[in-house]
Design brief:
The complex is a heterodimer of chains A (165) and B (102). Chain A has 165 residues and is an all-alpha fold. Chain A has six helices and no strands. Chain A has helices at residues 2-23, 27-47, 51-75, 91-111, 126-134, 138-159. The chains are: A mainly alpha (165), B mainly alpha (102).
């Protein structure tokens, strides 16, 4: 019972703050709502017995990406948007499109015969994930390191001042 | 009522739709990037829910770690590009940057 109440609290936090990201006018408020979504998703991972991913989510998203986003918002002063809607896609057409996609995906979600197995007992996952990374997923893992290095160098090149001799 | 797979899928669906709406309606480039983060998060919730309920072992969690990693790379590059645009155009409105429009 307490499990269900906790789940609904965390799911509600996730969903409401996701809607907040979509509907607030101020970009800084959007970033704060994004933090709610990220924290809620981390809580959902705990419910799904994925302890390692939950902590990675906190470290990378809340500690890294969100701080970076807020830095970028502070560095570019246009925080409050007077006019939110895009000229190419207005708010109402976008809402209609999203509702259509939502109906289609919702129908698919409830009709599909998902393959569900009885739940295994929750166990620590870090050992198994590390094992999978260095055995089965070794090549993607190494590629990921290359991608991160490239992104690092690329971000430095893109954001430094041009030096003209 | 028992919490099942569908609960997580519905949460992830709503987060995904909010992300799509954000990407479609924002004129601020940072707002668009935040919408993309929402979409990636909803995919992650699905991965982990299926990995928990489908009995697929740890592959779903491994994939979600890859997604988080790529999201970090995307955020770093995307925000660097946004700052470059700001330096060039003095704005980050995605509709002001139409120099290449014919």
């Amino acid at each position: 019972m307490i499990y269900a109440i906790l789940f609904y609290l965390i799911a509600g936090l996730t969903v409401l703050s996701a809607l907040g990201v979509a509907f607030t006018r101020n970009v800084f408020h959007s970033a704060m709502c994004l933090m709610g979504t990220l924290l809620g998703a981390s809580g959902l991972y705990v419910f799904l017995a994925a302890d390692f991913v939950a902590v990675v989510q906190l470290l990378v998203y809340v500690g890294g990406i969100l701080v970076l986003t807020i830095f970028a918002i502070m560095l570019t002063h246009q925080i409050a948007e007077v006019q939110v809607s895009n000229r190419s896609v207005g708010r109402l057409p976008a809402l209609a499109l999203v509702v259509l996609i939502g109906i289609a995906m919702g129908v698919a979600l409830f009709r599909a015969p998902w393959h569900v197995e009885p739940l295994a007992a929750a166990a620590p996952t870090t050992y198994h994930i590390g094992d999978a990374f260095l055995n089965q997923w070794l090549l993607p893992f190494e590629l990921a390191s290359v991608v991160l290095l490239t992104a690092l160098v690329g971000a430095i090149v893109l954001s430094r001042k041009e030096l003209r001799a | 009522m028992e919490i099942g797979l569908h609960h997580y899928l519905v949460v992830s669906l709503v987060v995904f739709l909010a992300g799509v709406f954000t990407v479609l309606t924002r004129r601020n480039a940072i707002g668009v990037l935040m919408g993309i983060e929402l979409i990636l998060n909803s995919a992650n919730i699905n991965y982990i829910a299926f990995s928990r309920y489908g009995g697929g072992g740890y592959d779903g969690q491994v994939f979600s770690v890859f997604v988080i990693m790529l999201a970090a790379a995307e955020a770093a590059i995307g925000l660097a590009i946004v700052l470059g645009i700001y330096r060039q155009f003095e704005t980050i409105d995605v509709e002001a940057t139409d120099t290449l429009r014919g």
